[in-house]
Specification:
The chain has about 120 residues and is α+β, with helices and mostly antiparallel strands. The protein has four helices and four strands, in the order H-E-E-H-E-E-H-H. Bound molecules: heme C (HEC) (4 copies). GO terms for molecular function: electron transfer activity; heme binding; metal ion binding.
């Protein structure tokens, strides 16, 4: 019995630490540690608030797993660096370019939201 409680406590402790990392309401900025030392300030991004204001109901275009016939296919909401490497050596889109392309393209098309460096990388 004692052992059982110890295991339960351990599981609870692990959940307390893991759950917030997967909860998108808690995301307030984008600061991927894979970049190492940042050249620019991290980007404020209130996940749910941003998407509500922008009127984005679904999880596309942001969370996808590939493209078919020119359309992005929805994928699990995981961190971008899982699929877009910080450095690519074949000239393909790297992580920084993936972020820029996704965020800036939509802001340009919507004619709303920041498009200049200092508006996203706020000091
Ligand atoms: C719409 C918002 C947006 C705009 C506009 C934007 N960026 Fe970014 N940028 C991002 C996001 C998001 C990341 C990923 C941030 C992270 O994980 O720290 C990023 C990452 C970067 C990185 C790699 C991380 C680092 O700091 O070393 C650099 C360098 C960068 N941006 C420079 C620029 C420059 C220069 C401009 C203007 C020409 C610019 N960005 C415009 C959103 C933006
Ligand atoms: C405007 C773009 C955008 C939309 C729309 C969006 N997200 Fe996200 N989401 C992000 C970004 C950016 C991150 C942070 C990725 C990172 O830090 O690597 C993120 C992170 C997450 C994470 C945490 C992932 C992890 O492993 O850390 C979850 C969960 C999540 N989003 C769920 C959702 C769900 C569910 C929807 C649809 C209802 C959604 N998101 C819509 C951009 C978006
Ligand atoms: C499960 C893997 C996976 C994840 C996670 C993922 N992507 Fe992608 N993404 C792809 C694939 C595959 C493509 C299509 C091939 C390519 O252009 O690299 C793609 C394409 C793109 C494109 C080009 C879209 C177009 O219309 O040409 C952008 C921009 C992009 N991803 C940004 C992001 C951002 C930002 C995130 C995190 C919010 C993210 N991706 C998460 C796999 C992923
Ligand atoms: C599919 C469209 C779309 C994508 C993708 C998108 N945005 Fe936005 N964003 C918007 C719209 C629309 C607004 C303007 C909302 C308003 O105020 O009406 C906006 C506004 C913002 C603002 C202003 C403050 C706020 O929260 O309203 C910031 C900062 C921002 N976006 C950052 C980002 C970053 C960083 C990314 C990439 C991770 C991103 N956005 C991706 C549509 C998008």
């Amino acid at each position: 019995m004692k052992k059982c409680i110890t295991i339960l406590l351990a599981v609870a402790a692990v959940l307390v630490f893991i759950l917030p990392a997967f909860s998108q309401e808690d995301i307030t900025e984008i600061k991927d540690p894979s970049f190492g030392k940042l050249q620019r300030p991290a980007v404020p991004f209130m996940h749910d608030e941003h998407n509500e204001k922008a009127g984005l109901d679904g999880c596309l275009p942001c969370h996808h797993e590939g493209i078919e016939d020119g359309e992005l296919i929805e994928g699990d909401p995981v961190t971008c660096v899982d699929c877009h490497d910080v450095k690519t050596d074949d000239g393909s889109m790297n992580l920084k370019e993936a972020y820029h392309k996704q965020c800036i393209t939509c802001h340009e098309e919507a004619k709303k939201g920041p498009v200049a460096c200092g508006e996203c990388h706020v000091k």
